[in-house]
Task: structure prediction
Amino acid sequence: MWLRGILYCALLLFTSITLAEQTAITIDNEEELSQTVNQLSEKNEELRQNLELQKTHLTSIVNEQNNITTQISHVQNTLSTLAEQGEWLSFSTALGETLRQQLLNLPEKPKSQPLDAEIAEAKVQQLNYSTNLKALDSYPTLSNSFNSSKLASQYRRLIREQSELLKTLISGTDTTILELTKLKISNKQLTNAIDEVNDAAHRYFFWVADVNPISLEYPVNLAKDVVYVLFSIDTLTQLYNASCEILSSPKSLFLLTLSMIFVFAHFKMRAKYYAFLNKSATRVGKVTQDSYSLTLKVVVYSLIMALPVPILWAVFGYSLQQINWDYPVAIALGYGVNAAAPILWVFIITAHFAEESGLFITHFSWSKANVREAMKYYKLSVWVVIPLVMIVMSFDQFNNRQFAATIGRFAFIILCFALVFMSNSIHRAGVPLYIDKKGSGDNLLSHILWFILLSAPWLAIIAACLGYLSTAQVLLGRLEASVIIWFGLLVIYFMIRRWMWIQKRRIEFERAKQRRLERMQRARGHDEELTINDSVDEPVIDLDAISAQSLQLVRSIIMLIALISMILLWSELHSAFAFMNNIKLWGTSVIVNGTEVEQYITLGAVCIAILVMTITVQLVKNLPALLELGILQHLDLAPGTGYAISTVSKYIVLMIGSMIAFSFIGIDWAKIQWLIAALGVGLGFGLQEIFANFISGLIILFEKPVRIGDTVTIRDLTGNITKINTRAITIVDWDRKEIVMPNKAFITEQLVNWSLSDSITRIVLTIPATIDADSDLVIKLLQQACEECEYVLKDPEPQVFLVDIQEGIQLFEIRVFAAEMGHRMRLRSAIHKLILEAYRAHNLQLPFPPLQTNLEALGRKSGRRSYNVGTI
Result:
């Protein structure tokens, strides 16, 4: 051990001596010294420049901080003005316009990413400066011959100067990082202030008229503005010059050329597309030729074929927005074109889906007449709705909405009338907005949704006439977007439904082929392979009747997706509905930091609580199917474990959802825990049987003495378990009667579970024979009957015994095993038939023929063991 320590010390000493020799570099050459002095001079000059740049950068950061502080003050003043003047907005349209003009002058939100990059770069520079400062200690020393020379003095002065410069730069970098951090905080404050102003603007302006109501002077003002737009602001000239600038821009020209190529390819591929639709339509509905891939291809090809024209439209709008600000009409038109491009794409997709060989008619089997009725105003949507949307959005962006009150409002009203015609035609076509459990669209929720959809354009027209133009535009736009999402989910539902229908038809077709093969084999009397014609006529299967649970799961999932989509879509307008938070319904007290504070429950809180409970109920209803489809079927779980997990999960979700919903209306756990404890004690005595059954139900779920599908015998009842609920278990007996047994009985009473760990069950049959019959022959015949019976298991093997001789009768027992409870009666029937056939074939007789009556035997009492023929 001590030898190892000596070696380690020697190694350290040798290393330190070597490093000292390496670092102690001495300059003993005048040329080398001169070269080193020049390098130091260049390095110092570079550091001085860096120092100047650092000072300039620091000054710009401070100036930007001051600018941000001024902007924050401006935004806060605007917010204060909104708060002070907000209650007067409903009385003065001019005041609203003035405040809106102030909102337009607000600064843009700053971006934090450049600041993060600058801070990282400053830290890297600081690290480099620190490294260079440490490297000065390792500079070479001068030999004694240079101590009094001029170069040596200059060398030492440059070393000291570089050290001071590096220290100054390190200190300046620290200051820069600090100021950048302050600037980042100021940017965040500015962003928060702008968000507060926008939220306040939504609250104050959304439900306030932004233009004057329509009066008798409106037609005159409309005509004046139309003439002014066409002739006074040189609209056509601006559009012409903007087009020329687009064609002269390489980027815009490239994008337009590429879009035109797509459009040209689209028209070239139309013939092949329609040929594919017609060819696939001939295969849809035929069991052996139909495939879900046909539907997917139709959807994908239709989406692709609908893309080129909207892409060209969007590229044109984008190019208009990128031109010189000298053409404001063209820029505003670019906004309108971009806003109309997605709507145009949706219309073209719908037209492709509505083709005679397309998705709706051929694949979904919708009525051709109804689809034609729904698409009655398709040309109206393309040639009227799209231009009107462009006009409305363009004048909403042009020159601070200068013509929004006249031309924009007129175009919006005409657009609403066009939507009325379109909505009515779709409604008359019978398109459902909600499909119930029966697969029908004629239900209350569908009628309510259609009433909202049909009423929305009329309400928007009235609101626009009264001056609430922006409010009507925003709400109608959100509603139409919601309808598009809703119809998209409806198409997805029918696609899933078609996939289920195809899979079900294939299964039934394979079963039909197998049954036909078996019939033909039995008719010919041999087992040779037969070729089945693929054109077997198979009846159409009612998918709703066969897979109602699967479709209910699909409907529930789609409803949840639709609900979440609506929440996300309308979340941008949450501040517009903040007025509901001002409607106080009742008050409640809460404890904050040990102090009791009065808190009011508002209409908004109640609406949120209702929404939470709605989502909770939907989750509880569909959670078992969701877990089974998404998780449990992929896990290797024991039978019943999945059901226990689903049930407990339902209770947990219901409890959490209820607590969250109640907290919004002022009922939290801290307030009701004592009430629940008192109720628990009282109900424990008054409803102890119900609580006992509830606890027993939980024990059954986890201990699993019984499971759904098990065959059980309890008391004098035997049947199959079909439901395990919180309080009771439902058993269906052999007469198909449903008996509800309390859970407590399955825990406290004797229970026979025929299929708990093994579904195999034994059957004992007693077979009599006359006293003069050959016992070996009878045993052989009974064993042969067991071997020939298809329901008798080979393992465990059947057994036959001569168990008794009673009153001149030989009694034989057959002990056989069936695979499951459902085979017991089939096995008894089949094996009895085989035994009777064997008895007749060998001229054996059963004792006690039906017409003989042995009164002496019936009246005699015997203490010997008695057997009932044919019992278990």
